[in-house]
Each structure stands twice: as C-alpha cells, then as structure tokens.
Design brief:
Length: about 110
C-alpha cells in the first residue's frame, strides 16, 4: 500500500459527538468519522461514573494524525479526553487511498502541490 492511513478512537459526550465529527471532516482532519453510541464506566477521582457517550472512529492520513489529535484536545469538552490511535496496517488499498486524498488541503487532491 502506497498510502498510509490511521484511525483515531475518541470518546465524547453524545451531545458533542456529531459536532466534533462534522468539524473534523470540514477541517479535512478526517476523511470520515463513524459515530457510535456507547455506555462508558470509568473512575474519575474517587468515584465511579457511568455515562452515555459516543465513540468517534475518525479515519485520516498518517501525516494528518498529529493535527487531528491537537484539534481534538482543543475542541473536546472534557479536560482529559480519550484519544487513541489505531494504525491501519491492513486497510483495503482503495479505501486507504481515498482516505488520504480526502484529508489533503484544498488544491493538493490533483497533485498540484498548492
């Protein structure tokens, strides 16, 4: 595979998830984001919490991941957001190529380098 993609795994409150997903795609930080509802159980301080959240699976190019991560840290409503990286070593080549091209800055899709 010539194009390298990766997937960011992010959890967020359900009320914020769709907006975060749309903004990632709009800013060309993700080619596509799947938003999946989930129930989270976690310890925060001395208490155990149970919350309805969403999982965001954000597909991006390897060279855009750091920008995606920085944006999620800035935009996320939690002080300590869950942001993890899954490398897509076995991605379907046409999908990986589409993903990488979809997150290129405007003008780069056609290879003109601008």
């Amino acid at each position: 595979m010539t194009e390298t993609m990766t997937t960011a795994y992010v959890t967020a409150p359900q009320a914020a998830a769709d907006g975060l997903a749309r903004r990632l795609v709009d800013e060309r930080l993700a080619a596509c984001v799947n938003v999946v509802p989930c129930d989270s159980v976690y310890r925060w301080g001395d208490e155990i919490h149970e919350d309805e959240e969403s999982i965001l699976l954000a597909k991006t190019a390897e060279d855009r991941y750091d920008d995606l991560r920085a944006a999620m840290i800035e935009w996320h409503p939690h002080d300590v957001p869950c942001i993890e990286r899954f490398d897509a070593a076995d991605a379907h080549d046409p999908f990986a190529s589409w993903c990488v091209s979809a997150v290129q800055k405007a003008g780069k899709e056609n290879g003109d380098g601008s």
